[in-house]
phosphoenolpyruvate--glycerone phosphotransferase
Amino acid sequence: MKKFINSVDDVLSESLHGFASAYAPIVRLREDPTFLLRTGGPVSGKVALVSGGGSGHEPLHGGFVGKGMLDAACPGQVFTSPTPDQMIAAAEAVDGGAGILFIVKNYTGDVMNFDMASEMIGDGAATVLVDDDVAVEDSSFTSGRRGVAGTLIVEKVVGAAAEDRLDLASLKALGEKVNDKTGSMGVALTSCTVPAAGKPMFDLGEDEMEVGVGIHGEPGRHREKLAPADSIAKLLVEAILEDLKPQKGQKALLLINGMGATPLMELTLLYGAARKECEAAGLEIERSLVGNYVTSLDMAGASVTLTLLDDEITGYWDAPVITPALRWGA
Amino acid sequence: MKKFINSVDDVLSESLHGFASAYAPIVRLREDPTFLLRTGGPVSGKVALVSGGGSGHEPLHGGFVGKGMLDAACPGQVFTSPTPDQMIAAAEAVDGGAGILFIVKNYTGDVMNFDMASEMIGDGAATVLVDDDVAVEDSSFTSGRRGVAGTLIVEKVVGAAAEDRLDLASLKALGEKVNDKTGSMGVALTSCTVPAAGKPMFDLGEDEMEVGVGIHGEPGRHREKLAPADSIAKLLVEAILEDLKPQKGQKALLLINGMGATPLMELTLLYGAARKECEAAGLEIERSLVGNYVTSLDMAGASVTLTLLDDEITGYWDAPVITPALRWGA
């Protein structure tokens, strides 16, 4: 295992400390229990957005804390859900008096722990469950579909709407709408190595790719020989469109997300290939994002995400955002 | 070789087309000869900044084209200098009547070709040569020191000053000041694979790292056993400080740059370690950046860059920038 670490036990803590000191004007780190929150304290009268999940998917979720997106993020150990006490402490720290909205990726551990936190908070809390991965129903860590790169789109859109002072019920409905209109699917070219394990999570032949892989290296639909980028783009876009069933002329956001070890040069190439497939299917790509946003440690691979746009979603997507990983308009 | 590509001959072209269509509001692609330029045409009365170099270091340089940074970038083939005709065409396309400033990383091929372009343009052109890498004097592709991640800091600061309408001579002087006050050094944990070669550029043992590696996989100072992140940070920061010789209390910008395949979690951990070393040496870290900005295809590795700040550099660093890879304040 070749990583920039000191000891496997301190990876998460040291990484969070480094992150918080690098982005001190935007985020702050609290410990015992651990969470990241935006600077400037709770925003009075605004619903507070709290997300979280296992670490190893950076910049998700901590990199999306800041104005226009999340109020707080709870990092679990690598690929492990955070605990309810983290979520409750985060919710209390950012509560602006208008309620707490949890944004939760659909994994069994996360759902159970966020449910527990939500129950303890009571009436002022609601949850949006993200399950955008069209690859498989149920998997190693999931009952139902998995939440993957589409999560950042839900967080961005609902975050902007919260700044606009939409109430808790409206934000929950908006988040669920974005999730319904979003589909993702990914491909792994290599495995990834969890520091504490010290070896790759799975084996993949020198000429193989895992189609429909999860962001924890969970098996996808099948394995096949590594194909040209155009074929991979076609495979992924077709699977997503089969799920979303858009009409001709539908406007969409196209996100090409790197899994962590795939260079930008390949991601922009894949973007071009995926965009051609989308346009051939009658979509109009109106918004785009390319980069490493929802990663799987050092996995080489990428995913395609499509969100069908309407004026409300586009408007909130374009609204100002100031976070470590996503920033525009301010 | 596992990459998202169609054929090795089309990697650069397809990647550029994807990039330009993903970031259409900010940049545009021209071909025959190939260069990227900012949208909105030449800015009248502003010195135009043109950079470029071999591809494979994305987002450098194309990702830094836009308001507040570069006017154009000329991408060569992977790890190969662009040609003078690209540079001349780019300069003509963005010429706002106040002169052309070339920002050139110090590699033999780049220097030769940019010199040729500059001579053909004549009086209206000047060059800033970037050679921030403190690791080695001379190397495989260089006479003198190499230009590496500090290049983005020169481009950002000089780009902001150009928006402020500084003249050609002042911008050249500012660029040279930033270069003098900037030092970088990197470590590779793995090699990288040029698509056309199809195999890793060099071999590195399972437990080894290359200290002082170049961004094309050039040899550095020495090889040693992979060390803890704290030791690596100490080694790199000490080498840079030995070169920059800052006074106690000096303000500085700290950039931790990933080489392409190193996850953000490790980069923020390394940031924390490097910052501690800097502070122990009496520096005050006033500005920070962490991410994959000047990469070496799929190399796992990272570099540390320090720029000693004064009010002028800090002010231009903070000024608004709207590029695909660096964006704030607007």
Q: What stands out?
A: The mean pLDDT of chain B is 97.
